[in-house]
Amino acid sequence: xxxxxxxxxxITVVALVENKPGVLNRIASLFRRRAFNVDSLTVGxxxxxxxxxxxxxxxxxxxxxxxxxxxxxxxxxxxDVQILTNMPHISRDLALIKVRTDDxxxxxxxxxICDLYxxxxxxxxxxxxxxxxxxxxxxxxxxxxxxxxLGIVEMVRTGVVxxxxxxxxxxxxxxxxxxxxxxxxxxxxxx
Amino acid sequence: MxxxxxxxxxxxxxxxxxxxxxxxxxxxxxxxxxxxTKYTDKLHHVLVRHEQGASHMADGYARATGKVxxxxxxxxxxxxxxxxxxxxxxxDSSPVxxxxxxxxxxxxxxxxxxxxxxxxxxxxxTKHNYLVTEVEELAYIIKEAFHIARTGxxxxxxxxxxxDVQNAITExxxxxxxxxxxxxxxxxxxxxxxxxxxxxxxxxxxxPVILAGHGVTMSGANAELQELAERAQIPITxxxxxxxxxxxxxxxxVGWMGMHGDAACNHAIQEADxxxxxxxxxxxxxxxxxxxxxxxxKKIHIDIDPSELNKNxxxxxxxxxxxxxxxxxVLPKMQDVSHPEWLNRIRxxxxxxxxRDILKHDTSGKLLTAQVINDxxxxxxxxxxxxxxVGQHQMIEAQYYPHQRPSTMLTSGGLGTMGFGFPAxxxxxxxxxxxxxxxxxxDGGFQMTLCELATARQENINVNIAIINNAFLGMVRQWQELxxxxxxxxxxxxxxDFCKLAEAxxxxxxxxxxxxxVQESVEFARSIDGPVLIEYVVEKEEMVYPMVPAGxxxxxxxxxxxxxxEA
Lengths: 191, 567
Ligand SMILES: Cc1ncc(C[n+]2csc(CCOP(=O)(O)OP(=O)(O)O)c2C)c(N)n1
Hints:
The structure holds two protein chains of two kinds. Chain A is built from four helices and eleven strands; from the N terminus they run βαββαββαββαββββ. Chain A is of the alpha+beta class. In chain A, α3 (104-116) runs antiparallel to α4. Chain A is elongated and about 60 Å long. Chain A starts with 9 loop residues before the first strand and ends in a 5-residue tail after the last strand. Chain B is α/β, with parallel strands linked by helices. In chain B, the strands form four sheets. In chain B, strands 3-2-4-5-7-6 form a six-stranded parallel sheet, sandwiched between helices. In chain B, α1 packs across α2 (30-36) and α16 packs across α17. In chain B, 56% of the residues are buried. The A-B interface holds A 17-18, 22, 25-26, 29, 33, 66-67, 70-71, 73-80, 172, 174, 177, 179-185, 187, 190-191 and B 119-120, 123-124, 127-128, 131, 134, 136-137, 139-140, 148, 170-175, 177, 180-184, 305-307, 309-311. The structure holds thiamine diphosphate. Thiamine diphosphate (TPP) is lined by residues 389-393, 416-419, 442-445, 468, 470, 472-476 of chain B. Thiamine diphosphate binds at residues 389-393, 416-419, 442-445, 468, 470, 472-476 of chain B.
């Protein structure tokens, strides 16, 4: 991977989705169907129990932000879509990197590199160490290139999570209907 | 009231206004079939002969009426047989609700007998789908499903109901209050800026063209379309599914566009300085090469589906909204204008096309598809609902059977599904029993779903089946003639004796081999209350012209020579 200080050609989209089985499948199916190339896709909980939040980074070769958002919005279980690409936002990727550290030199080198980045060694043994690095996608990529010469033996990245900056709150009041055993749906919250 | 899930399904269908459903029973849907015995006075079930037929019938019903069509099938093979019909409905935005049985909830995921992941398999061919796991959710889901199927950009919705959910008992309370789908908000009107931009383009255009699609009729914007065209003197070109959006003999209608459309339309689109695209989606069959498509025009595109805007063709004013609402916003503010020179130019193209009309050529002694269709049009007073299949006859139907009313020209446009025509005509007739319905099908496509002859007989449904028999898979043969040096691989077709076949099903029939018999065949069909089959034995190697070869520039049409200029 080459160092990309400012990754262009990527679209970052956030989707609030109903926390239901099959929703991830619908989104994956949509992206495959429309031949959108997904760079990373993360799903996580929000402060609302029935709402999950996805951060999706798409290659812009066959897609543009409007296209991605318009198609995602067509899915019934997608409550809302926000395009972050041209908005000030914070984005974070996390990498766990297992590096060979079987001599004093490499251990020292690793410590020195980690001091220059928001990275820390989270596990160390006689043969290998695990480093955790958090930052923007590009920053993590840069760090990886720094440690690569030491010998990476295993690595995983979470993919990007992102959030717009400032007071433009991106949230939904969504609550699913409640099905009572002796009646039809009761809405606890109507939007 | 305590009811079984199966009864809840039927109670909900009745409340949605459903009167007829098309289906086929099997193990996993049996509780629902058993429950039907209690509702026979309100719900009629049509037993099809293949579930594909059920899905096309539901689709045909929906297209003819604008109401939701319902089909029903068992799990596994029953459900997978629906898929072609769902994909067909999806492509043409037809509101269909499919109900399928599923193995019991505890058995799901165990590869149980007749288990298929139907919600997974139909994901790409439905607008939305559901797997119901709690009987308490059933009524709510059915209500949602109908709402989703018929609103916004309509489309098929599938509900997969495990057998134990059909058997479970719960208190039935119909969810009367509105639907709450926070993630489902079809757009409504245009905003002020968009309206201003549209008005500005309309005022300044010299060579405007309207492209009217299926969305015109779906949003009920037929009168608004007509007003727009008349007051701003804008010629109308129709998509295949747009036919009927406005009477085709209206002076502003030029014809229909695209691969086999009217040359005058394609020329007008290419030369235009403003395209006003209404409820259509710039499918490759209407654009030809998108790089050279209408190169000098500004473009307005109004569609209810935002994902259609700027998808195939980049436009200047994309408007996501309900067409009728948006046109009603625009029309009161629009100035009346005229473009006589532009209309004259279009008339010249039309006159040129007239001279190439095959009906003006000397074709004595032959029976041509165009003659059959033209005469069907004539003797049915141009007033029938026609349901075509896919191929040459479909294109010739579009060329020679002009339609005056919305929802009277039904065909599988987006998916081009052979086998659609005949079952869809049965569905259409159930939806519009007072109308004369003609299925116009090829010898190839008819054989894909002809098992529904038995359904038509059993229901005594009054559809007229016109088989255009050219002993070839005609449209494929045409491509082989033009692009594969006449190597007719797998297109000559041996067919059964269609009249004997009809006889075996107990259906009256007639074979037409000469043009003089066409009128009689229509009279014969009209004289019979029930299904009739007419076989028209036409020329084997006809060509459909004009033709824009796939991927060619839209103005680059292969044409039939003018009369007297034949090679
Ligand atoms: C289910 C399906 N299979 C294949 C095709 C490809 N196809 C398009 S037109 C055509 C020939 C149709 O022949 P026929 O029904 O005899 O009608 P004709 O063109 O002769 O009028 C074929 C095979 C299709 N559209 N649909």
